[in-house]
Amino acid sequence: MPKLIILLIMGGFQGLLGWYMVKSGLVKNPDVSHYRLAMHLITAFLTFAYTFWLALGLMYPKQVKVAVNPLKEWFRMLFLAVLIQIIWGAFVAGLNAGRVYNTWPKMGDQWIAEGVTAMQPWYVNFIEGLAGVQFVHRYLAYGVVALIVFIFIKAKKQMLSSSQKWGVNALLIAVGVQFLLGVFTLLYTVPVNLGLLHQLGAFVLLGSVVFGLHRFRFLNATASSI
Ligand code: HEM
User: Fold this and answer.
1) Are 104 and 183 within 8 A, CB to CB?
2) Which of 99, 136, 150, 159 is spaced 20 to 30 A from 63 at the CA atom?
3) Cα of 212 to ligand 1 centre, how many Å?
4) Closest ligand 1 atom, CA of 41?
5) 37 vs 31: CA distance, rounded Å
6) CA nearest ligand 1 atom 17, residue
7) How far apart are CA 181 and CA 129, in angstroms?
8) What is the pLDDT of residue 224?
9) What is the pTM of this model?
10) Mean pLDDT to the nearest integer, 56-73
């Protein structure tokens, strides 16, 4: 019951933030504050993540608690990294920063475009500058990919249950597809269908992370357990 009440509060809060976001625009100008968009988007992702977490608890009621899995902390770090990446994704979308530097892997002909450091004070570039937020989003993506490849390699050295095997494979595929979708969304200057697929891909990726987080809490007793 307490878990369901938390879920209800999260859902209500999501609605409240939606109203708060729409209040910042949309009447005369079809645009909203990118900060409010990011808040609304991240609460949607968190509500989804918690719902999925609760569902996983029902799907796998018998967890054999042999010993804490050393990958548990890495999964936590990955969860945080993906959330931060999603927030900067919302900044890119909210500022229409996917309409500049439509090249990959470089930003134009530079690895770090001059525009990235154009605004003063310097940190404003990374939260309000088009070049700066895009810079954070494109380079943090490499970090997320690297973290997943690391977890994948480490996991394959453990004795894995079928759900764990399935989980790490899904994670690797999800991040590969999501990365490519991001690159193509940028290269084609954000067509609606690619933008939507990229947003959906982020849900699938976060879902895979939550699945891994749930399945890798404990070491496996036998390779055949769930
Ligand atoms: C690998 C992890 C990645 C994740 C989890 C991720 C997630 C997201 C999210 C949640 C959004 C906001 C979508 C929306 O609100 O419409 C977004 C937007 C965007 N992302 Fe990513 N992204 C990733 C990688 C990339 C990469 C590698 C690129 C390009 C190099 C990229 C380019 C973009 C662009 C251009 C947008 C703006 C789309 C729009 O204006 O609707 N992303 N991303």
Assistant:
1) yes
2) 150
3) 22
4) 15
5) 10
6) 89
7) 23
8) 47
9) 0.94
10) 89
